[in-house]
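From the thread on structure requests for the teaching lab: each student submitted one protein with a one-line request. Submission from student K.M.:

"Model Peptidylprolyl isomerase from Siphonobacter curvatus, tokens only."
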Amino acid sequence: MKKILGLLIVFLPVLGFAQASKGKVIDGVISKVDNHYILRSDLDQMYHQYQAENPKNAPTRCQCLNSLIINKVMLAKAEIDSVTVEDRQVDGELEGRMDQMIQMYGSERNIVEQFGKSLDQLKAELRSDVRNNLLVQEMQRKITSDVKITPSEVRKFFNSIPKDSLPYFPSEVQVGHIIRLAKVTKEERDVLRERLLDYKKRALAGEDFAKLATTYSEDVGSAQNGGLYANVKRGTMVPEFEGAVYRLKPGEMSDPIDSEYGIHLIKLEDIKGEVYTARHILLRPDYNRLDINEPTRFLDSIRTQLVDGKLDFEKAAKEYSEDKATSDVGGWIQDPETRAPRLALDASMDPSLYFTLDSMQVGTYSTVMPYRTNDGKTGVRVIYYKTKFPPHYANLEEDYQKLQKIALSRKRNNAVEKWFKKTKGEVFIQVRDEDLKEECNDVIAAFSN
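Reply posted by the TA:
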């Protein structure tokens, strides 16, 4: 059976919480890899999600099982080889997943009502899975770090595809935007600063800073650990944070410090050259209450100049856009995988962008419209619909980056397969489900030690 090694990284959809919360999934262990288990719900969830996303090219259940077992082998080998990930990586990934949930369900309150659990409970349930997923990614990175792809290999790969099997790409678009963020008023900053100064006063009077951080900090990743960032390498945190850290002595606290994430109160625990350990309490402004009138007026003026041809879009985006992810590349929204400024005009596109483009003509600018960034900030944006590319069968001229990605992925998969053949004897692999043993006999045979 053909193995789908391209599925090695198992993502953790937030919908998994919904299934568990309703108690409708009949679960059980179907496989064991060393001390790690694969549940029937893991297999069902992975299989059904791929079916929903791309039913024509979705992997079979046996191919999904293959992928899940290889993931667990990587996880087991990571433990054997003492591969680690830092807490701050887990915290960042976990916070990103919670932000995705908030976007999906509309608000934190809706999440709590849907699952009958607090956000802290949901994060605690997900934390171990997030760490394991990062460990698997780190193992994959180590295995494939030396794998490269050359233009001649991409061409050879393309030429090996039968003409009647060439991928068919849907319509694509080149779209850019310029974003301006709502500003926090001086009054709101003063309120947050006063709260932080009060926490500082209480800590100086003897209260435990870590407990204050757990209670009050709005950095959800570090708050559960008392606001701790341990053994951080210099250059990791934003400059404002690190500037404050390096002005402190161990045991000292900063005054309130502004950054793009909010306002911080920092306590330095330890510092050794380029590595430090610190705690902080972060307070964020209420982005739902910010006034967008000023950025709207500013961006409307920029739009007028763009429409009149007095401003070049790329230059304007680089100079005026406050979206770091796109301003450096001239405002173009890039495909997250290929990094190319071409987006598929289909269900994979952000719905708000999709419906906006549906009402626009190519070559035009949208009106100034409200916008919420991925990290929850409030702002406004103007969208530029530059080009629409018609659907077509793959060719090297238009689709080189996509083909390069596929060819590189296959080459990496081959490296992982070779690694697995050498490694499988180091871990215990067992499939317990009798029906799966019969259904996926050839997959299971490949795991036999």
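TA comment: The domain at 171-183+290-390 is CATH 3.10.50.40 (Chitinase A; domain 3). The first helix runs from residue 15 to 22.
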